[in-house]
From TrEMBL:
Its cofactor is FAD. The keyword Flavoprotein applies. One of its GO terms (molecular function) is monooxygenase activity. Keywords: FAD, Flavoprotein, Monooxygenase, Oxidoreductase. Residues 3-165, 273-350 form the FAD-binding domain. This is FAD-dependent monooxygenase. It comes from Actinomadura violacea.
Amino acid sequence: MAHAIVIGGGIGGLTAAAALHAHGWTVALHERAATLEPVGSGLAIGPNALRALDTIGAGDPVRALHAFHGEGGVRRADGRWLSRTSIQTAADRYGDPLVVTLRAALVDLLADRLPAGALHLDSTAALASPGDATTPATVTTTAGEQTADLVVAADGIHSPTRTALFPGRSPIRYTGLTAWRAVTRAPAGGLTPAEAWGRGLVFGINPLAGDRAYLYATAPAPEGASAPGGDERAELIRLFGGWYDPVPALLETVEPAAVLRNDVYHMPRPLPAFHRGRAALLGDAAHPMTPNLGQGACQAIEDAVVLAHHATAATRTGTGTGTGTGDLPRALADYTAARRRRTTQVMRRSHHLARLTALTGAVPVAARDTAVRLAGLLGPTALVRQGDMIFRWRPPTEPA
């Protein structure tokens, strides 16, 4: 039976481990933290990712978390709509809704799909050798050196595995923006999902199940900066306290300790490949992207099921190396071919949107807002159609 080691217990790593297990692999997932997702935030799961999750039986449980069926769209800082659409319009076009849920809820669903003993928390793992067609990969873990037919590196935006496979100057760059996320209680009257654009500032609101709300924001800031005294809620109130109702009131309900702050990075040029030997990168390790399209986790989920699909093909057509996975490097080349172009497109579109929302000059901002408003006048599906390239994706089907 083929064996895989997964480095990193985020959404991508968990999906990869679950997908490989579903294909008959033995898996060991190493996460350096003592718990999975110890702090709360939300995330959006698009129709593309829901179809990917269907391949491991997790799609319907995620769909059940869908909490809003009204209208949403893009606003100005004063609350006036620039563009709006029905949530149902998007669901009808793509066959599925955009589900916004707690990140921890998806983590739990994915972790439940791992076999007993597969998850190793508080465990570091580093790639020692990627291996080749005749030699397994080697990983150094907290428990010692281990070999694997496949190593999946889902070790984040500052991926040590990426550096090991592609040494040299880091391919990621700071965008000049930082992002905040928080989950709080929703007001009794409910909330309308919206993303509001100001001059260089963005504030998003998404209702969640259980009378909660997911808030996010971006603003220009020096890399590595933090709020005075570490009070990130106070910084959000300073930046957005004069925005449309209910933004100020929502911020007042946020627990200061519940605010997460992270700098936003992007990759100007894609990696030459997402693999080397028997080691493969996925998610932020392969193609870090800004959060503007809400596709970071979704693309990692896509990566995971496509990787499992192609890697499993190697176990069926192995060249008799003793592991039955002699064709794995070639299968990983197929994975790169399947994912590199698509993720580069999504990565660049997301960065373009980040640059639009980061505009600060009065004239450029007015031109941007006018363009969005005019596009909205083309009909209720005008905004939705912009997602066709992303949301119409479908996972590969068996056999490989």
